[in-house]
Amino acid sequence: MSAAERALAHVRGLCPQPGPVVAAPITVNFHPDRLLADGATVAEHLAAEGMYRSQFETGISNGGLGGPRRAWEERMFPGVYAGSAGRPVYGALNLAGFPDGASPRFGSCHLVLRAEVARRATFSHGDSVTLPSVVGTAETFGAVWAALLAEVASTGRALNVAAGSPREWVDALARPRTAAGRAMDHYVEAQVHGGVAVGEDVAAVVADPSFAGTRFEPLLRSLCGTLTWSPGFRLAPAGFPVELRGPEVPPLAARVAARYGVAELTAEVVGRAAREPGADPQLVKYLWHVLVLRGRPA
Predict the structure, then answer these.
(1) Could you tell me if 239 and 289 lie in one domain?
(2) Most buried in the list 1, 38, 218, 223, measured by CB within 10 Å?
């Protein structure tokens, strides 16, 4: 039995409750312009290798890489994974059809995976960092679905979609969306087992419009036959509040705008700042967070 099969079997055993068949696509958000250890960007590696690499292989993480991440994965999939290669690829289930992907926290662009990939994915109600206990697969999604409905009943929203009742929430999910979802903290995490091969597993690439006309556009176009643009985000330095991600972020936004001679920050501008020698990755990450939460459509 392969590692993917063992992971799926373990999750099915934990929460065997059937539910609605998973029909929404898994999206994998990523920053195409971030640098890897060899000095090449994520987009360059994707185009050259045709494989989406896990955090352990790229060394790029939103937090928890190394000991914490290994501990989370061991808790979720005990005895399944060892070493760095072959570990799950993380995405999110885009049940709401958000044009900025199901988890824009992790990147300005996203891969839309083919429907069949969901058959070798596991899902959790919440991010791995929260040590979720409600999990499922495409065939045993009942517990995750029930947790989402309970979340709506108690808080009035789930997946960053507000509704007065679970029934209204289900109806709201079915509506077409053109506005960004900005679902920074509320998503159904997807753990894709068995790797993501761009040519076989990716149905479309969705990019932030700030990359149009840059050296990243042809790289993104080369990944898939379908490249579309998300609504994007842009925000002037004055729109970065102190209370959202701390007092160091607004002056950093002003310095970045001044350095590159722009009136507003975009995903592409934040990426340039991230590639600067000596850049603080945590503060740059906060720039992106505020851009998603407060930015206007590009």
Answers:
(1) yes
(2) 223
pLDDT at 82: 85
The per-residue pLDDT for 219 is: 98
User: Where among 175, 207, 229 does a domain terminate?
Assistant: 229
Answer yes or no: are the C-beta atoms of 271 and 208 closer than 8 Å.
Answer: no
Distance, CA of 192 to CA of 111 (rounded, Å): 13
Which residue range forms the structural domain that includes residue 115?
A: 3-229
pLDDT, tens digit, for every residue of 248-293? 999 999 999 999 999 999 999 999 999 999 999 999 999 999 999 9
Of residues 3, 11, 1, 24, the one with CA closest to residue 140: 11
Q: What is the pLDDT of residues 63-119, one digit of tens each?
A: 555 558 788 899 999 999 987 778 999 999 999 999 999 999 999 999 999 999 999
Same domain, 158 and 238: no
